[in-house]
Amino acid sequence: MRFVIVTGMSGSGKTQALKMLEDMGYFCVDNLPLELVGKFAELAESPAQEYSKVALGLDVRSLYKGKSSVEEFLQILELYPHEILFMECREDTLVRRFKASRRLHPLAKSGRIEDGIRKEREYLKKLKDCADYVVDTSEMLTRKLQEELSNLFATEASDGDMFITIMSFGYKYGIPSDADLVFDVRFLPNPFYVEELKHKTGNDSEVREYVCQTGEADEFLRRLTGLLDYLIPLYKAEGKRQLMICLGCTGGKHRSVTMANKLADYYDQQPLAACVLHRDITTA
User: From first to last of its 284 residues, what are the pLDDT tens digits of the chain?
Assistant: First the structure.
């Protein structure tokens, strides 16, 4: 089991880091009481749980209970194989972030933010010194943090990949609210007006042959996959982990289903995880 402790300065991006680890397949828990850390590690390590990757977020609120709390925490961790990720950040950047979010620093509830930051930095110094990885987010964009954590904690090639959902839909029932990219395939031949095809769907070979009869479907697919091959690495570089690609026709039964299936067939040959959904195929 890979057991990662995510800690560091308040406002440095620990919550964002945990979300990114969760996207990589880690079972994540944030801000457990210090007394429960050992119990959590034991539970996660149990063969019955089948956890291979676990991340635990801890901030100064859990650790600040007296001078010995950090030492006690480190003693607990000695009992379990672990890695510590310490999130660091410059004081001026932390002050700016706290002012922008209008949140109180946990150690400066009745004083200046700067005083709380300095007290926290001094208190966590021993924990930082013991850290396996220190990531400074002072000038770091989200995509750079994603790249950094992927390099450190993605244990398999697929951990850093994007998951693609391909959905067919009918415009008469509305565009899917969670769509990232929408493509209109109503320019293709419409089987709805052929009596023997009207009640079939794009999952039937006769409908697929009719939709693809002119060659425009294959040309559209060629251009679409070229566009997606260009876009997907750019989305991944920005930290996007899921992409919803929607193809629509009038009723969502014939043309959009056909093209969604063809696009899914394309991604079956690519090193990307993808699934296909037909939202309106059974709609009356």
Answer: 889 999 999 999 999 999 989 988 899 998 888 888 888 888 887 776 667 889 999 888 777 665 557 888 888 888 888 999 999 999 999 999 988 887 888 888 767 889 889 989 988 898 899 899 999 999 888 878 887 888 888 765 455 567 889 999 999 999 998 899 999 999 999 999 999 999 999 999 999 999 999 999 999 999 999 999 999 989 887 777 789 999 999 999 999 999 999 999 998 888 777 889 999 998 86
Domain limits, the chain: 2-159, 161-278
Residue burial 239-268, b: 16+ Cβ < 10 Å; e: rest: bebebbbbbbbbbbbbbbbbbbbbbbebbe
Place of tokens 């566009």: 227
CATH number for the domain running over 2-159: 3.40.50.300
The distance between the two most distant Cα atoms of the chain, rounded to a whole number of Å, is 81
Tokens of 137: 């987010």
Alpha-carbon gap, residue 17 to 62, rounded angstroms: 18
Cβ neighbors of 102 (< 8 A, separation 6 or more) are none
For 250, which DSSP code?
S
Residue carrying the six token digits 């709380």? 116
Tokens of 259: 């093209």
Report the C-alpha gap between 254 and 157 in whole angstroms: 36
Instruction: Give the 3-state secondary structure of residue 148.
Output: helix
**Whether 168 contacts 277, CB under 8 Å:** yes
Structure tokens at 103: 């949140």
Residues in the chain: 284
Helical pair 216-237 and 255-268, crossing angle rounded to 10 deg: 60
State which H helix or E strand residue 245 sits in: strand 242-249
Of residues 216, 153, 202, the one with CA closest to residue 27:
153
Q: What is the pTM of this model?
A: 0.61
